[in-house]
């Protein structure tokens, strides 16, 4: 019989919080979507993106039957002001992490104006650009933040009161 594992209900946290997921005892092996092979994993601000993040675990019992479960973790910037997300926008950032040289590709936008900004971890703006999106399949930027300190930065795309935030790391 397949083992039953339950990670609990989907949950929301602020980006500054940590959370531990526990697959439970009594299994002979564990494999998380993060690559961890322990009963529990600690998820911190270096492990997730602002927005929706899915974590999955597959467990095995002593007779080599497997079971799995997933949990959705929604990470909120917790700025104190609830802001709807730009759900249609697809932001790709690579390489991430990097030494400060990033390419940002944005697609799936409506025909309107957007603000693209990058903030450091204390909220100071380090980059800004206005985007007029008029039906192109994709907009791209090559961003050089190599003169900035190592750490976590946030890419923010905003339009009409909606935002989408992605995290980048300078090593």
Q: What can you tell me about this protein's structure?
A:
By secondary structure, this protein is mostly beta strands. Helices cover 0% and strands 53% of the residues. It contains no helices and 13 strands. The protein has strands at residues 11-14, 19-22, 29-32, 40-43, 51-60, 66-76, 90-94, 101-107, 112-120, 125-133, 139-144, 151-159, 162-170. Strands 1-6-5-3 form a 4-stranded mixed sheet, with no helix packed on it. A hairpin with a 5-residue loop joins strand 5 (51-60) and strand 6. The protein is elongated, with a radius of gyration of 19 Å. The N and C termini lie far apart (46 Å).
Rg, please? 19 Å
Q: Report strand %.
A: over 45%
User: For the residues shown, what is the average pLDDT?
Assistant: 83
Q: Rough shape?
A: elongated
Helix percent band: under 10%
Order of helices and strands: EEEEEEEEEEEEE
Please count the beta strands (DSSP E, at least 2 residues each): 13
Helix run count: 0
- Judged by helices, strands and strand pairing, the structural class is mainly beta
As laid out across the biggest beta sheet, the strand order is 1-6-5-3
- Terminal CA distance: 46 Å
Low-confidence segments, ≥5 residues, pLDDT <50? Answer: none
């Amino acid at each position: 019989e397949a083992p039953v594992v339950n990670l609990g209900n989907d949950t929301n946290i602020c980006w500054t919080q940590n959370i531990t997921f526990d697959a439970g005892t009594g299994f002979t092996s564990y494999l998380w979507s993060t690559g961890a092979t322990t009963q529990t994993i600690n998820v911190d601000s270096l492990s997730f993106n602002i927005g929706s993040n899915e974590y999955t675990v597959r467990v095995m019992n002593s007779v080599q039957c497997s079971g799995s479960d997933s949990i959705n973790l929604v990470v909120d910037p917790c700025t104190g002001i609830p802001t709807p997300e730009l759900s249609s926008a697809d932001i790709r950032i690579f390489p991430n992490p990097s030494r400060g040289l990033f390419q940002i590709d944005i697609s799936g936008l409506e025909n309107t104006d957007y603000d693209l900004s990058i903030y450091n971890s204390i909220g100071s703006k380090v980059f800004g650009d206005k985007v007029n999106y008029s039906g192109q399949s994709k907009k791209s930027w090559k961003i050089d933040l190599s003169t900035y300190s190592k750490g976590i930065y946030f890419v923010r795309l905003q339009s009409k009161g909606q935002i989408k935030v992605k995290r980048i790391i300078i090593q």
